[in-house]
Amino acid sequence: MRVSTKARMNRLFTHGGCLDVAIDHGVCNEPSFMIGLEDMAAVVDTLISARPDAIQMTYGQADLLQARPEKDKPALVMRIDMGNPYNDQRHRVMWSQLQNHDEPIIGALEMDAACVVVNLFMLPDEPELFRQCVENISRVRAACAEYGMPLMIEPLVMLPNEVRGGYQVDGNAEKIVTLVRLAAEMGADIIKADPTEHPEDFHRVVEAARCPVLVRGGGKDDLKAVLLKSATLLGQDAKGLVYGRNIYQHDNPNAVVAALMAMIHNGASGEEAWDIYNRD
């Protein structure tokens, strides 16, 4: 019998939407991702004061959040896999692996996570990497069903390395929708999806998911452009955002969080969010 995920899902979507700040980038083993995350304790302090809905972390860093006494601190979303597709240079062998193969969510249960997240990579000419991800998700799905742990699947369609060099996302709507549909078929409770090249097409991703969809942010960009694009995506019925570098690499993470939270929970437009950012 499957245990209900409702209690944990409520911790993520307390007001109908969710801003999940991702600081789990250490698992990628990519130096450029570490800028702004050198002092993890300080980063967590800043984010707790900013009060997003959730913080996305790994087992080895989660104590920095969960050992804190605040009753209203952000929920923990725990990354439970790692792989090498994010590295600047493509590797001879591409791989993705659960951090605990035999008991994949035991660490998340220990740390009282509200959700676990696992990648579903689709890279050109890498069928073995894709198979590994499907196997990982199948194993995690069974464990989540047993313990009532929500499963967030992160479908990632990537461009060939030679197109722009390094890790780059393919914004093709057809490819994203197809991979999101696979994530839904495998039993995702939440899907963390790439934005489509044309944000107005994102409703197709939401329709394919049949579960809450959070938009992932990718690399740092001009903040006003990020806010305007985010408003369009949220207008396509996304339930929230998972942003990392656009928050933790920013000079004022608190102000960025305030602007994004206003969009997700109060329906602020991109221009209104920009004004909130500048006031904070």
Write a structural description.
It contains twelve helices and ten strands. With about 280 residues, the chain is an alpha/beta fold. The strands form two sheets. The chain has an eight-stranded parallel beta barrel, surrounded by six helices. Helix 2 (about 40-50) links the parallel strand 1 and strand 2 (about 55-60). Helix 2 (about 40-50) runs parallel beside helix 11 (about 255-265), helix 9 (about 225-235) runs parallel beside helix 11 (about 255-265) and helix 11 (about 255-265) runs antiparallel to helix 12. The protein is globular, with a radius of gyration of 17 Å. The mean pLDDT is about 95.
DSSP helix fraction = 40-55%
Task: Detail the poorly predicted runs.
Answer: none
Instruction: Find the count of extended strands (DSSP E, 2+ residues).
Output: 10
Number of structural domains: 1
Q: What is the CATH architecture annotation?
A: Alpha-Beta Barrel
Largest sheet: 8 strands, parallel, barrel
According to CATH, what is the class?
Alpha Beta
Taking strands numbered 1, 2, ... along the chain, how are they ordered across the largest sheet?
1-2-3-6-7-8-9-10
Radius of gyration: 17 Å
CATH domain fold name:
TIM Barrel
- Beta-strand residue percentage: 15-25%
**N- to C-terminal distance:** 48 Å
Number of helices: 12
- Output the CATH homologous superfamily: Aldolase class I
Element-level helix/strand string: HEHEHEEEHEHEHHEHEHEHHH
What integer is the average pLDDT? 94
Q: Which word captures the global form?
A: globular
Helix/strand-derived class? alpha/beta
